[in-house]
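Something for you to look into today, if you have time. I want to see for myself how the chain folds. Leave the record below and I will have a look.
***
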Amino acid sequence: FIPMGDGVYAALTRSLKQKLLDLAAVAEVDKHGSKVPQIAAAWLDEILDGTELQAGADFRKAIERLRAAQATEPKLPKSLQADLRPYQEEGYQWAMRLAAAGMGGCLADDMGLGKTLQALAVMLERAKGGATLVIAPTSVCGNWLAESLRFAPSLSARIYSEAGDSEREALVAQAGPQDVLIVSYTLLQLAQERFAGRQWHTVVADEAQAIKNATAKRSQAVFDLPADFRLALSGTPVENRLAELWSIMRFVNPGLLGTIGRFNERFAGPIERNRDREAQHVLKRLIGPFVMRRTKGQVLQDLPARTELILSVTPEAAEAAHYEALRRQALTDVSVLNDKLSGAQAGQARFNILAQLTKLRRAACDPRLTSPEFAIAGAKVQAFAELAAELTANGHKTLVFSQFVDFLQILRAPLDAAGISYQYLDGATPAAERSKRVAAFQAGEGDLFLISLKAGGFGLNLTAADYVVITDPWWNPAAEDQAMGRAHRIGQLRPVTVYRLVSKGSIEERIIDLHHDKRALAESILAEGDASALPSTEDLVALIRGE
């Protein structure tokens, strides 16, 4: 009942009351009346259906464009070098329909379901219309370039950071059809005016939770980008607060959710404080057309049994310099040692070279493993902490493997700081305690299980986990297969995703190359008690050189 004055009340029907509440979800009220952003035209069309309405030409034009887009059946670009699974093709079509309607979207599929591939299909189809900008964390930029070359070779992809200072301005200004420019969030912020000074045909924000704080300069730089179509990719669009969702939607569809103050008043406050189911229902309906979310469980039948991904980690300057100094020292030590040893001592020479290689592997994990005086955590530890937090937030159980027990000890620190529960197992764990911890993990106690290679390579059944993180690539690919087999085995009802953390510019990249191109070499290096199976001294030294 609405008081009209003089003791008169107007009775609202349930239907009219709901329409007014829905209208209030997008309307901004001032002394001149109520204003609704154009992006909310579809919402208005739905809630005012059946209501007598006088609408202007702009509103009608927006609705006609939306209906025309919904009626289309976007075809996959013929130049895409991949076969999309049904749910991936559905994601592509959803994004293309939004683009045709002049709207943006957030692809929020679970980790490992191929968000990058779906986005590349969209980029490829839209490439002829103008330049594409991909914004991603620094560690992921290289992966975007590799995936572009692999699945969309007709695109001309470049990484902004790899261009010289004199070339960067032209790279941004002259990007056109078929061009894809990949930039980190950090460098975008530093060159905000340059990137915001032109129109982009397509902008893709990968790991869009990076802009969850709308007031941060990084987020403001992303918001300022003029674009015909915006696509956000994030497996965790809401990590802690609903304001994070507002920030992502502010990027893809500016104005849809109003100001942050009004959003907190309408939705965040009532939902987070009072568990207001009505507000939750309205918000879900409002953003529903612009967010596509599929979990592994929903598309299980379309997934391969095991998905393997490489997470490239870029070390900070100090860490990279530390590694390079060790590498050069290793080359010097190997050269001096070879000069001293005679032909009869060739076996000793190989042993010493392998020791140097192991030292470099440890430095690639974390500089403190080789130089305890190094005061800061390495990039891989930071990347692991972020990955562990994301997996845990999405309700996944994860096995974490390392060959180095002291590295596992280092990895425990960020988990303890974040309050993430875990089990731990290494060679020093007594047999009885070992069984107890395995049973506890299988029963749901702990989000992660940290395991050393020698302790956990065989004999463990850990099917409670659906993710495996290999923190340091091993010489022998078979050893990794054993680690993956702890989760990926009979009794596992869900697909398993494997992440390998690889330090960029280190020997770990050479090891990954060995897995693909020189499997026999990789296996022979780890062959126990068979020195004759080792490669030549020259081949081993080439690994240290980075060849």
In short: The first strand starts at residue 2 and ends at 5.
